[in-house]
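Example protein
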Amino acid sequence: MGKVVRPHGIEGALRIKSYAQSEESFLNAGTVFLRSSSGETREYVVASVRPHKNMLLIKLEGLNTLEEAETYRGAPILINRDSLPREGDGEYFWHDLIGLEVYLSGGEYLGTLKHILRTGSNDIYVVQEGRSEILIPGIHEVVKEIDLINNRMIICEVEGLLDLNEV
């Protein structure tokens, strides 16, 4: 769901970089798991979340001091997959898509979806094959099929998309 950047204040709040769509995602999850620098993973109840300077501040029950919060500097923020609500057909979580093999509708293999960039209007899928990267807009007009069972994404052949996009 995100990553702890650093503690914030003396009462155990954390400044985090969020990978979630909104701060409500943390509140809806209810609990998060943090892995300390020593490798220990601990569960915390989310008390509050609010935006702060292009990041989020999160307060967790039981994390009450600067010293306690410091042990989680750089820690990943994890949640149970079951606590993520699915809103409807055709909607996927990023972790569902990353790693899919991407093909053109004609069958040509393009590469593996390595990561996703969030933009203001739509996500951009970064597909990599060897040292080559292709940027694919994550929109219904381009993405024709997502098959999680067979680990495949099929995209339509949009004129000029592959010619202009190779990095």
In short: The chain has two domains: 2-82, 94-165. The first helix runs from residue 24 to 29. The chain has a mean pLDDT of 87.
